[in-house]
Amino acid sequence: MIVRVVLPPHLRTLAHVSGEVKLEVAGRVTQRSVLDALEARYPMLHGTIRDQATQQRRAFLRIFACEEDVSHEAPDAPLPQAIATGAEPLLIVGAMAGG
């Protein structure tokens, strides 16, 4: 499957890409499989989206699939068919914080 991923600007800069990224994902399309494929293709992103030791999503990043926040869903839960087929992109969004 070819999955489309939109990265936040700071990660696009780090990965030296512009626009969305297209990744080939083997097997079930889940958050884990997409992030594994993303880190394999762009090793400089390793540890930026997930903690290197725990594999937990970084606190100030959110993941959206078909306009739904899937950040807190199980990493091995299947993503919607529209994401798996490439009809819709998976969005990785940087959260805003401050006072």
Structure explained in plain terms:
With 99 residues, the protein is α+β, with helices and mostly antiparallel strands. It has one domain: Ubiquitin-like (UB roll). A hairpin with a 2-residue loop joins strand 3 and strand 4. It has 3 helices and 5 strands, in the order E-H-E-H-E-E-H-E. It is globular and about 40 Å long. The N and C termini lie far apart (42 Å). Helices cover 22% and strands 21% of the residues. It has a 5-stranded mixed sheet, covered by helices on one side.
Topology readout:
Elements: E1 2-6, H1 9-15, E2 21-24, H2 31-41, E3 61-65, E4 68-69, H3 81-84, E5 90-94
The share of residues in helices is 10-25%
- Largest sheet: spatial strand order: 2-1-5-3-4
CATH architecture: Roll
CATH superfamily: Beta-grasp domain
Order of helices and strands: EHEHEEHE
Overall number of structural domains: 1
State the helix count: 3
Under CATH at level 1, the class stands as: Alpha Beta
From the alpha-carbon coordinates, what is the Rg to the nearest angstrom? 13 Å
- Strand tally is 5
The fraction of residues in strands falls at 15-25%
Shape: globular
